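Re: weekly structure request thread

Next one in the queue (530 aa):
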Amino acid sequence: MPTGALPTLHRRFTAELPGDPSGEPGSRQVHGALWSGVRTTPVRAPRLLAFSQPLANELGITEDAMHDAATAAILGGNAPWPGGVPFAANYGGHQFGNWAGQLGDGRAIVLGELATPRGELVEIQLKGAGPTPYSRRGDGRAVLRSSIREFLCSEAMHFLGVPTTRALSLVATGDDVVRDMFYDGNPKDEPGAIVCRVAPTFLRFGNYELPASRGDVALLRQLVDFTLRHFFPLLAGTGAAGAGAFLRDVAERTARLVAHWQAVGFVHGVMNTDNLSILGFTIDYGPYGWIDDFDLGWTPNTTDASHRRYCFGNQPGIGLWNIERLAEALFPVLGDGPEAERAAGEASDAYRNTYAEEASRRFAAKLGLRFDAAQDDGALLQAMFDWLGKHETDMTIFFRALSREVRRPQPPDALPAGVQAAFYRAVPDEHAAAGAAWLRRWWSRTRREPGTPADLAQAMDAVNPKFVLRNWLAQDAIDAAHGGDTGKVHRLLRVLQHPFAEQPEHDDVAQKRPEWARNKPGCSALSCSS
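Done, posted below.
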């Protein structure tokens, strides 16, 4: 392969699953098909703004190739990727608890599958590359602000160890896109952009829900068979039992994912069934956010501001609700009535048990502990959550500070300065005293763990990030990029690739939310508009 060339794509999805026979333009209902062939819509001046070098390396794409003008044309939708057969997937979903019918890829276009140097196949997808049959009234485009957020967050989550889709590139289109950011009757022109997303598959719960909702069992069975054959090969050809095992596996993956979100303080914002991956990846970064203070009721999504269905504290329960909807969709392939009901119940139980175990393990690890119910660790964690929720306390800074406290030769008499640095406002004396009491209790518990205090501190720093993509940091980078300066985007990308390292030269990126960002759009609240 020439140094500046992109590898040829494969076409497994379109080759093995039924597609839309109509090539008509415009939005429409598509029946009997799992995808529609589409074309990307050219833009005026595609220009590479940033790319992930680590991901490019994993895909076998050289730095020279990424900087090639021909690559920018491909990643901007102006030229075909060699071997690609672009398509948009057809799926449905429950949105905010209600069945929404057909949804589909309204502004995402899969170009094909790439074989990595390790022999794995991954889908290459452009988000914002033009309309598809599923765009409804949309234009299929994306704006720079949301594209920066998706590009940075995809890579930030990966380096945090959270399962996620990835982002290869961020390309400016040279065209403006009209958006009403908060749906308040004030649309404006914004610079357009396209993100190249990468994942083993973008299959989501809604892919299975749509054919099930239409009674198209044959199409549903084709999709399940394809899924097992390529992504759960040990279950392929095992009939209803395999479908049940697939459902349980998805339930466990989803539970582990949500527990990981909770442990790092990530709020997805739109946990609709069309936004949950069957492989347990974080998918579709819209109005997400990291909680600043430990507020279980916080949501970054203005659309959800009244009901807070998808707030931080609700994410575990919503994950289970979504698994139940997937189980309903899979009923026709899970066996007869009693057999299907049993499979659905086992999946729900698997979610509950896996989430409880994983959340307990992850939060205990953040405290330097191996969770042990016999040592009353559950009560210790609950007391910590109760205390954190009573006063504005930065979750990321609080947990990072504990590795310094675990090194103390004696438990603290008062609340240490490192912990106090996590507070947003002056702390009442009684709250400080309660925190100090909890710290003493925790410190004593750590002394029953194997290893030295230094060992515990090192283990804690390996799971408590110093750097996360705080909302105000992303917005600051977006504001600079709108002014033509992408330096802050590049800096954040570099820092977030090492979230657990100290990086003292970047301490300003680890600061808690500044007061100016408390109510600033993009920092405190976002919309689905992009």
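The CA atoms of residues 106 and 295 lie 33 Å apart. The chain has three domains: 12-202, 206-366, 368-530.
Next request, please.
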